[in-house]
């Protein structure tokens, strides 16, 4: 996931302020995800559940990322696709519903874990985090397809 965002930043970075900010949020989201999942190369101890504060921070960044996509980036892309061609508009119309289904999974995760505290038993956390990771990976791929289409076919 981190490699994907680095490639996206190299390819599209600096071309649009909203997309730059969004890709930076994506990177922050992935780094926190990896820390929570126990992928940190700096932490060699046995995997333990993250602290509630870490989960809450992750959920906040997740919601910020989803919101930026739906209320800033996708609107810009949709407007560009509408004005530039039917093929691009059809691509956007095909991809947006698939992105929306990933939003539902992310919102469910947030609803379940955003307000956890130390006393909560998080028996399903690792599985839910894994499902979310797979969902985010699929979402990033779809988003990158939209962004690539926008910049490949519509730069003026």
Average pLDDT number: 81
Order of helices and strands: HHHHH
Which outline best applies?
A: elongated
User: What is the radius of gyration?
Assistant: 17 Å
What class, by secondary structure content? Answer: mainly alpha
Uncertain segments are 40-45
Instruction: Bin the helical content.
Output: over 70%
Keywords: Transcription, Transcription regulation
Pfam family, one: Rsd_AlgQ
Protein name: Sigma D regulator
Family: Belongs to the Rsd/AlgQ family.
If you had to describe this structure to a student in words, what would you say it looks like?
- This protein is mainly α.
- It has helices at residues 2-12, 17-37, 52-84, 86-113, 125-153.
- Helix 1 (2-12) runs parallel beside helix 5.
- The longest helix is centred in the middle third of the chain and has 33 residues, at 52-84.
- It starts with a helix and ends with a helix.
- The model is unreliable at 40-45 (pLDDT under 50).
